[in-house]
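[agent] plan:
  1. take the single chain provided in the ticket
  2. run structure prediction with default settings
  3. attach structure tokens to the ticket
  4. add a short note for the reviewer (M.T.)
[agent] executing step 1
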Amino acid sequence: MSRKYYSEDEVESLYSDAKAYLVQRWEPRPGYKPLILTGGEGVHFWDAKGKKYLDLISQLYNVHIGLNNRDVIEAAKRQLDEMAYASPSYFNVPQIQLARRLAQITPGDLCKTFFGNSGTEANEVAIKLAQLYKGASKIVSFWDAYHGSTYAMVSVGGSSRNRQSPGLSIMEEFKHVPSPYCYRCPFKKTYPDCDLMCADFVKYTIEKEGAKSVAAFMAEPICSWAGQVIPPDGYWQKVRKICDDTGVIMIFDEVMTAFARTGKMFACEHWNVVPDIETYAKGITSGYVPLGATVVNKKIADHFDEKGFPHSYTYSGHALACATSLAVIDFYYKEKLADRAAKMGDYMMDELRGMQERLPIIGDIRGLGLFMGIELVANPETKEEVVPKGLTPEQKKDPECNPMLYLADKAKENGLIVSSSPGTGIIRMMPYLIITREQVDEGLKLLEKTIGEMAEKFDLPKKG
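[agent] step 2 finished; step 3 output follows
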């Protein structure tokens, strides 16, 4: 594909317009200028000045199939030629076909889908379905979780970054429990001697709230915002039984983990656990067109067939988005991307273990498939966090004070894109599923160089 470059003056003009006319996301960083992207191919993209980057987070963890996939682009074009949009008052063919395809490929008896436009909307639908089905309002979820940015999703998500914004309304019927974060167990236990106390705490919380008042337990099967937390064996099986015994709906937010990302088509398949409701976005279209989906089991589907579901969006079941998703799903299976993610993930984890031996700043590595995290520590023995305690809000935004901001900025300078869990020393890596071994080697070489530069800058543990 042809690349479009801009002169220095043109780029500065674009930045001026962005500052003047765009409401910025999250917390602004004084003087920081996000990249202006103009194109990409495969696992690389380039900015307006023409600099090329190797992207190890697949944009926002969502472009599983890589950039500029012509199969998907052509499918979208064909649908635009046929019919771009139909009111949700009607059915359209791609919508029906995608709902059928999801029923065929999702685990267990997940069988009927409500379509929205994003992961946030899919999660909103899941919460509403559970509350209406149970006739109860309370939702239990993880601390340090993220399920979206609307009021309900900020409330159900346990992220302090979102919940502690002054003046923001929080819905108090949403309750929280610790995630199964074995590296930093909040109960100071060690697996398996802990006997999965964190799962028992889910049961304890439901009982104390009153099982009849709790509609659902909602979680990502791998909690990303908390730091790519991979639950220990037996955790999800135990939570599934707790939900069954208490009559609480189990909701899996698979917005980030579904569609081959973890080495299975759906992450819940790693534990042979089927939730009552599951949500998707990101990989369902690989970012080519916005789409979210909420899939329910037969028992819940039958209930709403009879009662109706008082909910809709103007763009529910958007024909273009559904046609795009069908092409993306075909590509997953044609290229066997779940198997590829599993094999490439094993290779990356082996290489990261070698990096951990060379860099004592790496306290822990964890992951499934191409969904992985690296936890950096100031002291590998005590697990002292790499981001200093007591930083002021201004210092947290300053790469001269915050090692993780410095690392992200330095990585960009080195032509590499990685991200971190906010406020932590955890590097999140979720590469495009089409990444090659040579590209993995190139990316990890740049990452090791960057971590070393950060350790040198902040006088952190150096190479052994």
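[agent] step 4 note for reviewer: The two ends are 44 Å apart (CA to CA).
[agent] ticket updated
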